[in-house]
Amino acid sequence: MSQEDTIPLHHSSQSDIDEIENLFNVPVHAATVLPARPPSPPRVSIPVSHSSTPLPTYQKVPPSSSSPPVVPAVPAAAAPTGRSSIGVAADAFGSPADTLTEPVWDTVKRDLARIVSNLKLVVFPNPFREDPGRALRDWDLWGPFFFIVFLGLTLSWSASVKKSEVFAVAFAILAAGAIILTMNVLLLGGHIIFFQSLSLLGYCLFPLDVGALVGLLIGNVMVKIVVVAITFAWSCWAAYPFMSAAVNPRRKALALYPVFLMYVSVGFFIIAID
Amino acid sequence: MDSMQPPVENYANPRTCLFHVLFKGAALAFYILSALFIDSFVIIFVVTVFLAALDFWVVKNVSGRILVGLRWWNEINEEGESIWKFECLDQESLARMNKKDSWLFWWTLYLTAVAWLFLAIFSLLRFQADYLLVVGVCLTLSIANIVGFTKCRKDAKKQIQQFATQTIASRFTSSLQTAFSVV
Questions:
Q1: How many CA atoms lie within 13 A of A225 on its CB side?
Q2: Angstrom distance (rounded) from CA B122 to CA B133
Q3: pLDDT tens, A98-147?
Q4: Taking CB atoms and an 8 Å cut-off, how many pairs form between chains A and B?
Q5: Domain ranges of chain B
Q6: B42 contacts in chain A (CB < 8 Å)
Q7: Keywords, A to Z (chain A) (predicted)?
Q8: Does the ipTM exceed 0.95?
């Protein structure tokens, strides 16, 4: 679902002894060597080495300063050769009673920040947006998951009868629709990555979510029609650059028409639900 | 008599093991028991799929790293191509992994997938398409994790073999050198 952030603290392949030494040194310069991307949580990660390319080895990043007794424990536990570095990680992870929750919470915060940034990137007007084809590089599926479920829940709540069928149908249509639309682009010879496209189509549901929520709160049909029309236009506007960038210009309409069709049908679903 | 037995290795990361099992069990238990108590399909769907998604995240991001030292993810590089990365610890740390931890990790992973498969067959037999949807999503998430970690493990084994051949080759050449220097 969500993506991993790498923590490229070192770019050389090192021997194991050097790696263990770096476990001692990490607390000193961990604060300065954070990557430019949204910083990873002070999650414990284990040193990793690779077979093929000289990718950066992972360094152990101990939990942040809020748990200082962990840091002196690291050198002491790393020194005896009998302990694996996982044992060290386990100590650091588990010794104070709530470090298991603390890194997880930080990871959750980081993933939430990624969802928000993806949302802003996709849905909101941004004049400084970089090339749309490459914009959603940090794709994640949590956002689309929440939006699809939210839309299903809203529609189900608005329905007076057959609530479960409404939810199931909405979820199935949205999920299957996203997959089919992605396959459509791929079959048209477009260059888009499957999960990136799923993620994008999911995020573009956000305006329709807003429309459905407003429709839930306001019962008047005319208002619903206006609101849904606006949010539908917003969704299409959001999806257009990514989809059109992915395919051959002569096939743009072929790729975009099904997307618009799906959003139109969702819009009608929202208006018609009673 | 008992003092002669070697000490049984205990779980090295009990909390992580607990979380590894917790969400899987909760999703399965909720799905199975909810049919008895809860009338609303929507609630069953949302809670089960949410628990399954949480479990997927925990296994991928937390317990995979800590219990078996494996990790996999997807990156999109500068040219816009998608790369799946599979990583593992270096061989010595892998060899030192707690056996109980990794046993628990792999077996619960496989068992959950099998359990969801059975539930899928049940709902197929009962022609319940909407429950099949729930089970389908959970099954997909379990299988995704299994595939990811199995590929990691294969990569790890390849690494071990390469390391072994390298070590043998280097030892062979060094012993040859010492033999020649002695002569």
A1: 2
A2: 12
A3: 333 346 677 778 778 888 888 888 877 666 566 655 567 778 888 899 99
A4: 118
A5: 14-178
A6: 152-153, 156, 163-164, 167
A7: Membrane, Transmembrane, Transmembrane helix
A8: no
